[in-house]
């Protein structure tokens, strides 16, 4: 026979209403009582009926996830599985499930988000990117629907909570690192120019060059997809110049893999002839050949903080918008060397 809430209450020597409040994580119940009741729930193998609970409080106990492009393409980049791992970790603790919006075009993605909101399929949404003039963010803002942005908003919206790194400072720091090694011809490979992460890192790169009184041709800046093929195409472009760069800032590790492989195919030795520094510090950065110098942006923490702040926004009526800046760290490996 199935274990009921009354069975848990009897063994815990509390009222059934207390067990209900423990399940709902009510602040009216002490942490000591919550721990005792939850332990007994585990011992008895009791699992709350989340569907009934959702009907009672008109909540779905689900969070929506919005990718920057089709899921099949986005999942080629290790950033997204890792950020979703962070989101999932906190969501699991709070008994929230995840609901992913999919679509092959921006219009299809927008329509999927509208269905999530209008159909009340989720209690809140995490947008896993930030770009200028984004219909999804504008729609969520106008609907006053709970959402959190991973990335800096493209323009001031008072009610937006976002989780990000200081990408301007990181872009400047990695460029200054290459300058400190004596490099003067430093190229930049970014993602789409309408993505805020590209804009911020590019601004930091340009500021470092400006402070060093170095002027480079516009052709030293490339915008490609955050895919390995993007890095390959960028190298074809950059290394065709008579004065080719001696160092490259790449804004994504997957792109950097394409950079490393294409440089090798063309006969350039990294780091002897070309230095490469990248961002994200995903799992293969350490096992790349050579091991990739990369900025650890704490991807898991970005996702964890996004879920934490969204659920807090959902469950707290007077929640004040926040900007959470996750610290980063440059991990120096073997793809950078002083300029000869």
Account of the protein in words:
The structure is a single chain. This protein has helices spanning 5-12, 16-23, 31-44, 50-57, 71-74, 79-93, 106-118, 135-143, 167-180, 196-211, 228-238, 253-265, 299-315, and strands at 62-66, 97-101, 124-127, 147-150, 161-164, 186-190, 221-223, 247-250, 275-279, 293-296, 323-325, 329-331. It is an alpha/beta fold and 340 residues long. A 6-stranded parallel β-sheet has the order 2-1-3-4-5-11, sandwiched between helices. α8 (135-143) links the parallel β3 (124-127) and β4 (147-150). α6 (79-93) runs parallel beside α13, α7 (106-118) runs parallel beside α8 (135-143) and α11 (228-238) packs across α12. 44% of the residues are buried. The model has no long low-confidence stretch (mean pLDDT 91).
Element layout with pairings:
Elements lengths: L4 H8 L3 H8 L7 H14 L5 H8 L4 E5 L4 H4 L4 H15 L3 E5 L4 H13 L5 E4 L7 H9 L3 E4 L10 E4 L2 H14 L5 E5 L5 H16 L9 E3 L4 H11 L8 E4 L2 H13 L9 E5 L13 E4 L2 H17 L7 E3 L3 E3 L9
Helix pairs in contact: 1-2, 1-3, 6-13, 7-8, 9-10, 11-12
Keyword list:
340 residues, alpha/beta, six-stranded parallel β-sheet
Question: What's the short story on this structure?
Answer:
This protein is of the alpha/beta class and 340 residues long. The protein contains 13 helices and twelve strands.
In N-to-C order, the SSE pattern is HHHHEHHEHEHEEHEHEHEHEEHEE
Helix tally equals: 13
Distance between the termini: 77 Å
Helix content: 40-55%
What order do the strands of the largest sheet run in, or round the barrel if closed?
2-1-3-4-5-11
Instruction: Give the overall form.
Output: elongated
Query: Beta-strand level of the residues, as a percent range?
Result: 5-15%
Mean pLDDT: 91
Q: Tell me the quaternary state.
A: single chain
Structural class by SSE content: alpha/beta
Q: How many runs of DSSP E, i.e. beta strands?
A: 12
Which stretches are low in confidence, meaning pLDDT under 50 for 5 or more residues running?
A: none
Largest sheet: 6 strands, parallel
